[in-house]
Predict the structure of Aerobic C4-dicarboxylate transport protein.
Amino acid sequence: MPMFGRAATAGKGTVTGPVPVKKPIYRHLYFWVLIGIALGIIVGLAFPQQAAGMRWLADLFIALVKVVIAPTIFCTVAVGIAGMGNLAKAGGLAMRTMVYFTVTTVIALALGLVTVNIMQPGVGLNMSFDEADAADTIAAVEETEGGISGFLRAIVPDSFMSAFVDGQLLQVLLLAILVACALTMLGKRGEPAVRALDTMSHIMFGVIKIVMYTAPIGAFGGMAFTIGEHGSKVLGSLAFFMLSFYITCVLFIVVVLGIISRMAGFSLFKVIRLIRDELLIVLGTSSSESVLPRMMVKMEASGVKKSTVGLTIPTGYSFNLDGTAIYMAMGAIFIAQATGSDVSIWTQIGLLLFMVISSNGAAGVSGAGLVTLAASLAAFGDVIPLAGIALIVGIDRFMSEARALTNLTGNAVGTLVMGRWTGTLDRERLREVLDRPNSIDMDALMSYNDGADRGEGADGAPEGREETASAAPAADGAPAADGDAEPDGDRARVDTRT
């Protein structure tokens, strides 16, 4: 028996129909995002002063996405949990999810500590720093209540609407879980509310589809700003530390996530190919939040049951930040090495245990990892100088990109693993999608999302059924053409047009 338990099999649920015609490369989002990134690099190198003022393009794109993230998470999580119809089942999924996230976070922190101690990027630098460079970060830490009590207090919003106004994902997640529990207890009386929330989530996905047309512009602005503002710092004394961090992130993805993926029965590199659009957007914007809704839709279309995706992805964005964990561990020890501070192995273990908690809840927004690192250093200020955070403020933008890419990959793998572990993964569909990633028509899914809800059998596994799915409904309400029939029920839409 597989180590992750019984997996749902597709039965007759194998995607049928002719192999879709390959889209021209210019019709893929990743093509235009790559162009945006390339142009941003060119402009940043050729016109650094002007490029330094283009950050607003990336910030505007991220802000547009963040407008709908909170309502999307609320609706999706509430519908997913309420759709289970069983609070015990939802609790079991939540418990397994947290166990998996905690284990991977500990591994990421440990790998970061091991790598930074072996490569020793800060030893011998004896760098001085200007505390004024870290003034804003330190001020943000001082305004935040630390410890477990502060973390728990931060989860509870001041009011129902304040969680959405402030964009606090943990608070939104808590409200969604509470509402889902209430809807489940209402039984049939709560079904109209569940349908309304489901419709609202479809509307939010439609808005995201429109916003994604501006992704190449956001990637251009973000990359131009990064190169124009901080390009020279890469060539300085911090280059080896950056290289050490990148190597560690690659090791975590290839080795740790690669082993986990193999144990779960799928290929890591095929998963990376599947989410290449999202990875490129994150590379350009340095924010994993910018693709959160797209990731939820893509994971559902890949064979993971909606209820599992609805709980795992949003939770992972707060509790499964592997890249941030690596950054925190390496950043703390690098500052100690660069300032000549001696940190014993037992202190490093204590730092690791503290960071397991402090890393949770760090948002996927660019720069949040720096504040989280500063909060951890504040707890060990007698060993590692907090003001030493000024040493890496200037290169945080470059580190943010690697953090976000690692976080996103970890959440994609984590969602598939949780689907396998809980038996809510249609393995035949996943195999089909990984072999033919272009068979997922994201335009149709983001517009209509008819395939977001998976049928569920008596044992909680997706019901197998034959399907021939279309990329979009026929225009003006006309009957679908042959081969473009609507799928039975709410299967994930897969483009099979010829």
